[in-house]
Amino acid sequence: PNAPLVLGIETSCDETGVGIVRGRDLLANTVSSSMDEHVRFGGVIPEIASRAHLEAFVPTLEQALETAGVTLEELDAIAVTAGPGLAGALMVGVSAAKALALATGKPLYGINHLVAHVSVGLLHHDGAAVAGGLLDADGRAADGLGALLVSGGHTEILRVGDLAADVALLGATIDDAAGEAYDKVARLLGLSYPGGPAIDAAAQGGDPAAFRFPRGLSNAKYMGSAEEPGKHRYDFSFSGLKTAVARVVEAYEAEGEEIPVADIAASFQESVVDVITRKAVLAATENGLNTLLLGGGVAANSRLRELAEERCAEHGIRLVVPPLSLCTDNGAMVAALGARLVSGGIAPTGLEFAADPGLPV
Ligand code: KG4
Ligand code: ZN
């Protein structure tokens, strides 16, 4: 049988994404972001994101169809992110997908956003496999596969056995997402939004050891041991770190002294990246995961890439970093998982499902 032609729709946060794949081949990946509209607030405002999705959806869809050179009639299925994410934002994509499915009679699949992030490992992009044999054609991991997803909306460690049937959440943030922490701390330091790239750049000229900021959920009480894991062994917390940075900034302001932005940025970044990479590598070694796939917008971070490379190499873990356009939120990852479900003969979700902001993996 021919590889299925699938359209994927992603609207869980501030990116309106429409991707088209034929089996494992990426035909189009069009993304429109409302990031610019959130700049003056220093973070994603859900109401604004929802409205932006409404405005961007049809042009983004048309652009993707044009790029792929296909029509809606030719599709084998439509896939859409059902959750987790922002309620109103998800509803726009789910409603649009249902309308398309109803009008065309195509089967519709509701997709988990986190599993979709990992599904980019199925794709071939620019003639090469994104993750070189990481996942077989059926979406099963060849051997132990883990994923580290770090973005403005979520921060998780996953264990992936089979994209369609066996994905487990090993750890997640209990408060802010990593990217959200970058955005909030950038604001404290008077840097621009989004904060990640701004802090990454500012940190280049700073001393990462200038301040010793807290590593959330890293003490014995939360970590426990390999034999008796603590409740939060693989979990993250960034709100205490943000508060610690705020205290330092306030102290400089109170003294009327110039804030050492580069040193604070570098020290903050070191704290985030140290704890993320340490816990990800720990989760991988303790769960027999010998490959780690990186996803989410924070995957762009230079220090995260550097330390992840270093620590994965030390532990014999293969690190896979997809092209950035497939790390950030996009429709191609949703289409990739949709195509895998079609190929696997898995029944469509149908039209009777709702967007679920808290959808578990
Ligand atoms: O996955 P993504 O594009 O979208 C959502 O989360 O919706 O991730 C965006 C996040 C933002 O919080 C941004 O500050 C962060 O990724 N980010 C970075 C870097 N580039 C983007 N964080 C750290 N270092 C970077 N170089
Ligand atoms: Zn995401």
Protein model, in words:
Helices cover 41% and strands 20% of the residues. The protein starts with a strand and ends in an 18-residue tail after the last helix. It has 361 residues and is of the alpha/beta class. It has a 5-stranded mixed sheet with strand order 3-2-1-4-5, sandwiched between helices. It contains 12 helices and 12 strands. The model has no long low-confidence stretch (mean pLDDT 95). Strand 1 and strand 2 form a beta hairpin. The chain folds into 2 domains: 145 residues, Nucleotidyltransferase, domain 5 (2-Layer Sandwich), CATH 3.30.420; 152 residues, ATPase, nucleotide binding domain (Nucleotidyltransferase, domain 5, 2-Layer Sandwich), CATH 3.30.420.40. The protein binds 5'-O-[(R)-(carboxyoxy)(hydroxy)phosphoryl]adenosine and zinc ion (ZN). Zinc ion binds next to helix 4. Its main location: cytoplasm. It catalyses: L-threonylcarbamoyladenylate + adenosine(37) in tRNA = N(6)-L-threonylcarbamoyladenosine(37) in tRNA + AMP + H(+). Pfam families: TsaD (PF00814). One of its GO terms (molecular function) is tRNA N(6)-L-threonylcarbamoyladenine synthase activity. InterPro entries: ATPase_NBD, Gcp-like_dom, KAE1/TsaD, TsaD.
